[in-house]
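Dear V.,

Thank you for sending over the compound details. I've combined the ligand you provided, fe (ii) ion, with the protein sequence from our construct and run the structure prediction for the complex. I'm sharing the raw inputs here so there's no ambiguity about protonation or stereochemistry in the SMILES, which I know was a concern on your side last time.
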Amino acid sequence: MPTEDGATAKRYFRNAVERHWSPYEVDLTADRETLTELSRSAFTQLRATVAMFGAGEESVTEDLVPLAATVNRESDQRFVASHLYEEAKHAAFFDRYWTEAIRPAEDARGLEPTEPTDGRWFTDPYETVFDRTATAMNRLLDADTPANRASAFCHYHLTVESVFGQTGFHAVEATFGPETDGPSLPALVEGFEAIRQDEGRHVGYGMDRLAGLLRSKRVERSFVEETVAGLAEPVDAVVEKMGWERLPGPDSDGLAAFAVQQRRDRLTQLPDGDGAGRRAAE
Ligand SMILES: [Fe+2]
Ligand SMILES: [Fe+2]
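Below is the predicted structure of the protein with fe (ii) ion bound, written out as structure tokens.
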């Protein structure tokens, strides 16, 4: 459905206001205990996951600024302001989780305290995804063209927030969520659920804008497909390692398949090259 009148942004902004949540109110008590008792390798993997999410949220907060500076319709400005605020809130949740749940567990386990920014938690493919996303977003400040906007939405909303983020949420929820019989991390899962709800609006907005660019033929579908495909290799290299061995939840193949499906679903939601919608974006 065409939304050039800004109806989507308006609706999402209102939804953001009405579904407000606080990262400071999530009770971390049970998680502290579970983290103290996890196996050493599972605890290391958990710290890497939280560090990657925390750094990711920091990056997307900063990387959204060029889009905030570029949109000029009032409803878009309001929505992007809420989007930026929510990314900062997500970053604050992971910060707090590190300081108030992971750090005490490190103490209890007799480990040296670590920082979520330590290089040990990040791999080269992870850095590649975020470096490329920052470049794509900053390009909007040089030239606000349809191609640069499409590239920004493909990197940020379609790939980082949707394919990457959703696969990470899935890994954590399917491993530590209430539906599994493994160790439970209720605060982490609660935070992820609230974040996932916010991300639904962010991805919905980016997809709506991308669909608009395709529908009006200001960008070619092949450009979108190539941009998304160009990011697949580093994204898949990271998501394949997001699971936990010897715990419930998806293995490496399951996570890779989940990411592939996410990517396919998003592309299916976008209009065809001839301007006809395959399926309406969210
Ligand atoms: Fe976020
Ligand atoms: Fe987001």
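A first observation: The pocket of fe (ii) ion (ligand 1) is lined by residues 57, 60, 87, 90, 195, 199 (CB under 6 Å).

Warm regards,
I. M.
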